[in-house]
Amino acid sequence: MKNPKAVAMLVLSVIIGLVATVIASGWVAQQGRAASNKVVVAAVDIDLGSRLNPQQLKTIDWPSGSLPSGAITDPQALQDRVVKTSVLRGEAILEAKLAPIGSSGGLSAVIPEGKRAITVRVNDVIGVAGFALPGNYVDIVVNTQIDNEGKGDKQISKIVLEHILVLAVAQEANRDETKPKVVNAVTLEVTPEQAEKLDLARSVGTLSLVLRNQIDKQGSDSAGVMKQQLLAGDLLKPAEAVKSKPAVRRRKPAAPAAPVVAVKKETVEIIKGVQKGSVDF
Fold first, then answer.
1. Which residue range forms the structural domain that includes residue 118?
2. Which of 70, 86, 103 is the last residue of a domain?
3. Does residue 136 form part of some domain?
4. What angle do CA 156, 162, 168 make, to 5 degrees?
5. Cα–Cα distance measured from residue 71 to residue 230, given in angstroms and rounded to the nearest whole number
6. What average pLDDT values come out for the chain (281 residues) when binned by 10 residues?
């Protein structure tokens, strides 16, 4: 070699660079481990009301700076816990999404404390053509007859319950479905007082569900509508129709005018000097 000293310096530089790279990568890995935590996430899509098992869970590294509140770090702590909302694959399992410890699986784990679940029978019309899905909100309308103080019954339609959560349709409670589904029963989340009203309403008349916007919480002050109010101004009774018809006055024909008799006149011609004229008699 022409310059052994230069070659030695080059080899030394390469060695120092490799050592620095190894040290830097180790430091970065250590910092990454220090800045992240193990968080339990769903390994598959999990339906609400399901009981968790190890096959449904996995742990991943999660940055400590963005760790969600209520995150679970130990998979063993989730053994036999029940989720009260649907969880998608890769989504963190949070304490707020879990039913209380000791809850059994199924729809009962989804019902909040102080609420009840009641099922009403529906058809394709009452059930809003299948668009009343789990997670949607509906109003309840009853059509019934009310006593008119002994003068006969009056038909009325009235909203009796508002902003009622649909828990399940038929035997399905999955809230991720968006396709309409015509079923024969809908389960609703109500308070005990609302459950009493709903049970009475379905025994005295027919029920209808009215689908509403999920973020619209404004109530209605409607007093209901009766049959007479619905048809007022649209249909008139025969007597009222005759009464409302304007009277037509007939004018008598005028007497014929007397014929005009022409009077024959006599004309006399008068000649006076050079002037000539005529006079009628």
1. 111-231
2. 103
3. yes
4. 110
5. 56
6. 73 85 77 70 87 89 82 87 87 88 78 89 78 88 79 80 89 71 87 93 88 83 78 56 54 60 62 66 61
Work out how many domains the chain is built from and give that number: 2
Q: Please answer whether residues 144 and 160 qualify as being in contact, where contact means their C-beta atoms are separated by less than 8 angstroms.
A: no
d(CA 91, CA 44): 9
Last residue of a domain, one of 74, 103, 132: 103
Q: Is the dihedral of CA 102, 104, 105, 107 positive or negative?
A: negative
Assigned domain for 248 exists: no
Q: Are residues 210 and 174 in the same domain?
A: yes
Which residues lie closer than 8 Å to 73 by C-beta, 6 or more apart? Answer: 37, 38, 39, 40, 59
Structure tokens at 260: 């005009």
- Measured CA to CA, the distance from residue 110 to residue 281 in angstroms comes to 125
**Residue 180 is encoded by which pair of tokens?**
């309409």
Q: Is the pTM of this model over 0.90?
A: no
